[in-house]
Known about the structure:
The protein is mainly α and 309 residues long. The protein is built from 14 helices and 2 strands; from the N terminus they run αααααββααααααααα.
Amino acid sequence: MATVTLPAGYTKAEWEPIVRKGRKLIKQKSSIQFALGDLVIDALVGHPRGHGEVGQVIDLLAHQIGINAATLRDYHQAATQWPEEKRRPDVCWSVHRTLAYVRSRYILIRKDPFDPISKENRWTVNEAEKVANRSFDTPSNKDERLARTRRLLHSDEDAAEVVKEMITRPEVRSRVVADRRARSLLREAQYEHWQEVDREVEAEAELAPAEDAEEVEEAMEEAAPGISYKEAPLEILRLFGSFASFFVSLQRIIPQVHSQDYTEDTKAAVLDNVHKARMLLDWCESAITTGRTDMDKALARLLEDEEGE
């Protein structure tokens, strides 16, 4: 092992075994990262990959093997750009990833650059980034442009700002929504957003001071004119609360529905629940108008089936 720069307070005998062990661990980690990338390549052999299929395979595989999907996607991209015979086992995966879209990468990686920090001739991520940034001053193809963009938009905040700006362009919006996986991710993000909003609203309601009670009562009276919430029975207040929750939830969820993406079984399941909801509402209407709260046999069977599931 070449002599390495020592940190203050360490002897050569203390420091070099630590470095050797670290480099051995990095080599093992790099081997696993490439192996996972190759696993995705193998999984895609003989299967379509033109309309979001690659993303779907990566997302599902990542979930089932217990890894972050974005991480597995990085492994796959690096593996596709570095055939096994072109990789250097003694150079870490991160360097390979950084050089993945440099046109002369197969030649460049054969020679170790000088690392001014450790004073050694060896590949480091820092040196790889210098080479990659110089190479991408004038990217010449789609892969190089995307690779440079990913590096520039490393932070989530920067990426979000650019995405918000880009989707103001009609052609960009059209291309995004035409991709099935992109639509699925957007719907998932909307669902997660409204879940978070609901949690925040519930938390604020729990923390609301007692003096806000009159204001809340006034808002409820506006929603149902003529009702005195001080005198209304508890079960009626609960009904209004259930209706309000139902109305708000549907108003948020239905705009996210894209029936063209659903199977016939999925549509049938939703319509079955719509039918059940109508039956329950009819029962509520009958109880209010006639005073009869017993349910008919069809509804009783429906609820028994639900409990049985």
